[in-house]
């Protein structure tokens, strides 16, 4: 398929710049085969059945955006991509001229980092040893709002650009499908007899990288670190044994489950994944997906199309635009059922 097959017209005013007043106040578009239902997010409870397993990504967004100056006084912006160890990180650096190895950068009027070298599009930097990189960014960094949110981050974003169940620091972008849940919603899911499990995938800035080839089969996917623990594997087996479905909360949860079961059997897995899911992919684990609305021509809309069907997905997106749904990270959600399973039923 071609990249252009996944294009749709999106009015700029539909790109959500602020979160809703409450996490659960979003709308929900249900995509089940060719059927579309306009709902409120709280209505998701009507689609969850006893013995279902909802799989959430418990990664925690770190305040990974840092501002500073070169020794010459030139302004720079750092975006941490991945913390490597207790002294080093890989990051994107935006400046008028790329800094050279050995350059010292003064960050947030508080500490210094040294540029060690380049690794492709990223820079390896060493942090002031007085603290770990995570401690420095937690103390002085800014929440890394996506590029399509055209404003500076605020104190409110520290809470709302973070899921209520985030426990493992390392992401530089939120797993946004999870932003709709509050503690009461999680309790209501359990009250219905469904189970909740967690995987970890530290979302990188590469999630916003556009597809640059016309033939999507030639696209090289970015790499992200994930962990699927043995306990989650057992939860999946238990849900299956009771006739429950696996509901992935977010495309990152999909990437975890499918990366850990490439041979058809889910196993514990820790490491990187560059899995690229597009139409024609045969899902091993995911029955239902909760996700937000994604960028035109993005790998994420391609993933949704693989699950729901290409025609069904593009029709759903056209409907969402017509009905004025809010798009992207702080936007509304869609609940997508696996088309292959719908045909079997």
Automatic annotation (TrEMBL):
It catalyses: 7-aminomethyl-7-carbaguanosine(34) in tRNA + S-adenosyl-L-methionine = epoxyqueuosine(34) in tRNA + adenine + L-methionine + 2 H(+). One of its GO terms (cellular component) is cytoplasm. Keywords: Cytoplasm, Isomerase, Queuosine biosynthesis, S-adenosyl-L-methionine, Transferase. HAMAP family: QueA. Transfers and isomerizes the ribose moiety from AdoMet to the 7-aminomethyl group of 7-deazaguanine (preQ1-tRNA) to give epoxyqueuosine (oQ-tRNA). GO terms for biological process: tRNA queuosine(34) biosynthetic process. This is S-adenosylmethionine:tRNA ribosyltransferase-isomerase. The gene is queA. It comes from the Bacteria. GO terms for molecular function: S-adenosylmethionine:tRNA ribosyltransferase-isomerase activity. NCBIfam families: PRK00147.1, queA. Its EC number is 2.4.99.17. The lineage of its organism: Bacteria, Pseudomonadati, Pseudomonadota, Gammaproteobacteria, Thiotrichales. Pathway: tRNA modification; tRNA-queuosine biosynthesis. It comes from Thiomicrospira aerophila AL3. PANTHER family: S-ADENOSYLMETHIONINE:TRNA RIBOSYLTRANSFERASE-ISOMERASE (PTHR30307). Monomer. Its main location: cytoplasm. It is found in: Cytoplasm. Belongs to the QueA family.
